[in-house]
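Task 17 of the worksheet. Students: predict the tertiary structure of the chain below and write it out as structure tokens. Keep your answer in the requested format; marks are given for formatting as well as content.
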Amino acid sequence: MMDATDIKIIEALRENGRMTMKELGKKVHLTGQAASSRVIKLEEEGIIEGYTIRVNERAMGNPVHCFLQIFTNSLHHKPYFSFLETRQEYVRNNYKISGEACYLLECRFPSNEELDQFLIQLNEHVSYKLSIVIRG
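Model answer:
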């Protein structure tokens, strides 16, 4: 069972997953060793699943950000998934959702031209509704 200190640990690690256990301990009013033990426990319980980085997509050369509601044309979704596997450089997330659409696809592109080519090829497998992110 998580307590208030565990929640503070998670919040601190969300802000900076690279901090030392000593720094984490200071933030949550524990020793570095006690903070480390708590983090290990949270990892073992599956509450902390891993550590990652956040990148600036625009600075990485991918300023076009969009979401696509995906409507499959049949009950067989494998062609859609196979297509996505060949376009992993653009795909950020693919969520199975409820509602009108079957999936919500999040993508980043270096240009509108590459987005257009992606959409032409995507349309061979599924129908979609496109939303471009104006500010994110």
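Marker's comment: The chain is about 40% helix and 20% strand. The longest strand covers residues 64-72.
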